[in-house]
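WARN retry 2 of 3 for item q-0093 after timeout on previous attempt; input resubmitted unchanged.
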Amino acid sequence: MRRVAVLALDGVIPFELSVPAKIFGAALSPDGESLYEVLTCTLDGRPVTTSADYSIAVTHDAGILATADTVVLAPSVWMPLVTGPSSLPSGLAEALSSLRPGARLVSICIASYVLAAAGLLDDRPATTHWRHAPDHARLFPRVRMDADVLFVDDGDVLTSAGASAGIDLCLHLVRRDHGSRVANQVARRCIIPPWRDGGQAQYVERPVPELLTSGTAPTRAWVLERLHEPLQLAHLADHARMSRRTFTRRFRLEVGLSPGQWLTQQRVALARHLLESTDLPVDQIAARAGFGTAASLRQHLNATLGISPHTYRRTFRTA
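OK item q-0093 returned
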């Protein structure tokens, strides 16, 4: 069983604080056993205030961080005011430095300010809520800020955008640890999508354009039935009865990704499903997923997950 420790500080935002326990707590083995132990702590084990009209009492202090496989830092309302190590709460930097080798450190939403101030995001890719991304980038120029994505997985340090993107990131960790079958079961139990396409661009407030067509959704559905085919942008635009330029603009507006990025994402997802649930040879999976060759599949899977198809199958085989 993997241990997840969630650190709450004064002013913690209740919704984000509840996310790890909800998602990791819903992950069960085929025998119905919990796959994670989720423990919530504060720096000194005492109650902390929240951004709502109540406080939260916990059982543990920050000593449990050193025993965890994954440490999640929940956001507090004051975190965008952090400018460097000297503005961190007393004892926080020491607590974050107590993680054991190989442990994962996760920030949800504006908790990325704390990781950046502690120097833990230096020269790393990261994200935060899109409203705070420009300020974050100004304060911490060494962080490679990407305000367009829902979360960033940089191996042992992971960051998410605001609020529900924390759900996406925790579900991603379940998928990374136990495969798509378990992650999909968690999504069903929690009544959430197992994977959200696109990035934060979908949720930034902007004028809604007049809909002159039915959008790109029918074409996306059409593509999902033809992932094995050598689809090009021209094929997608023709199906949508739009020019390439109009289709690309509409697609990015609706999905938050370019058509090419989205198509690769769907092909990787199909390949992962086939690796987990079938005995098909890797070259046949590559063909069914539209990558053409095993070498191409290997390249894309390594770029996405950092592992080979054979390693992925050995780790997440479910059938």
